Every structure is written in structure tokens, then in C-alpha cells.
Amino acid sequence: MGDNPIYEIRDERFGAMVIGSAGLEELYSGCRWTEGPVWFSDLNCLLWSDIPNERMMRWTPDGTASVFRSPSNYVNGNTRDRQGRLVSCEHGGRRVTRTETDGTITVLADSYQGKRLNSPNDVVVHSDGGVWFTDPTYGILSDYEGHKAEPEQPTRNVYRIDPASGAIDAVVEDFIQPNGLAFSPDETKLYIADSGSAKHEVPRHIRVFDVIDGRALANSRYFCSLDVGHPDGFRFDVAGNLWTSASDGVHCFSPEGTLLGKIRVPQTVSNLTFGGPKKNRLFITATRSVYSIYIKTTGAQYP
What we know:
Strand content: over 45%
Number of strands: 27
Number of helices: 1
Largest sheet: 5 strands, antiparallel
Radius of gyration: 18 Å
Strand order of the largest sheet: 1-24-23-22-21
Helix content: under 10%
Order of helices and strands: EHEEEEEEEEEEEEEEEEEEEEEEEEEE
């Protein structure tokens, strides 16, 4: 890979996952802060959030980009449930919502123990239908990515929404600023980023928890730290490697937490997802732009 400067190979396993001739493509620019990419295979398009511009964007492989939703209520993270419905975190509404197939929006969560949530940030859906999301305060720190307000929750938590009752439980309460999260491919573990280092002198790490009966977390432990920037959003490939955002690009960690390598990106990366017909195309949101690159592995997310 010596002739391709976008790759930093730390381990031969990473060299086997990237394509030396593949280029980093800038698909769209002109945003203020891109986040929350989600691939729709059935519609053959990518959606993402442009938070400060209060809009969601759509890109199709013919190169066309258009506004998907505006105003978006400052949507940040997005995912899909197993029925293919869009699930989103809204800074502006301080809530988690689901877009139904007819386009109507259902509120899944906007409060906990009678107090408003901070500003839901990222979200994943378990195969049992449970919705798990992080709730830091980024969306209420100023009017740039939401509406400035004082937090009502005493801590920055990670929550689970029960698919049957709609009840909301705090599953982790000791993060400084919980951010990206993702289940391991077999859903036995949940990984959660703490991006508190953006504002505090603390480790810039991702922690991992065992998932108990699909409802609770146990055995919190350190998984990895970034050497540049702080972790935001991340996703897994089918082999259990974790691909995470960083200040200098995308970092890939083995299932044991070893840094395997990096894909350098010219802007600070916020999030990423796998997509394309074979789920072997990495879509990357980075500050003002959206990039993509083909790799030799495939993403583990569903549908």
C-alpha cells in the first residue's frame, strides 16, 4: 500500500481489508457538520444529517444529492430498525423518533423520570426491537446544533426503550459524554464511545459491556483509545473489527482492541456506515463533506 498515502497500515490484517487502488471519493460538500449516515439498500440511497443547517440530505449512486427533510429538528444520529424504518435522534426536540412507512413521525422517547432528555445523539436497534441511545448535552450547549438550555438530567446516560411497553430505562449512568454506540455482530456486547475528551481532560476511549438478556449491561471494561481526536460514531464489519471516526480519518480496531490501521480523511470524521449493494463501501461523514471508499470486508449492520 506504499503507493496509496491514504492508508496507514499498522497490522497486516488491515492490509488484507483495504484496496490499494481504491480512492477516497468526496460525494458531497457544502454542509456545516455532517453526522448520522445510514444506508437504505432497498431505496439505493444514503441519508445523513447536516445538523447546523437543520436538514437531512440524500445521495444516490448516480451522484445526485438532494434535501431529504428540512427542517429536521436538528437530527443527529440515524439508524434503521429490522422493519426498515428510520430511527433518529433529534437535538431540537430532545427526543428519539421513528419515521413510519407513510412518512409520519412517532416519538419513542423525550423524557426520563419526568424530566426532559438532554439531546439524544446516536442510536442502534437490537434484533428484539429494543432501541438503545446515548444522551449527552451537545445539542443544548449552544444554539448552533439545537437550542441552548440547561440540562434537566443529572447525568449523561445511555438508555434502552422497551419494544413492547415503550418503557425507558437508563442502562449506563457514568459517562462524561456518551456518544456513538454499536452492538457486536452477535449482539452479545455493546460498545459505547465517551467523547468527553472534547471538553475535558479525560481518556478518549470506547468501552465495552456484556449484554444481559437483551435488556441490561454488565462487566464494563476499556476497549480502546484513539491516539488522535476523540471517538464519535463507529460500526462493525462481519469479522468483528470496529471502524471508528477520528480526527485524522477512520481507525480500524481488531476484536481484541488492537489498532490495525487508518484511512486518512482530509476533514475531521464524525461518523461512518457500511453500504452499497454488497455492504463493502464505507460511507464517511466528515465535517462539511461526505466521502466513500470501497474495502474488502462487509458491514455487519441490518437491514
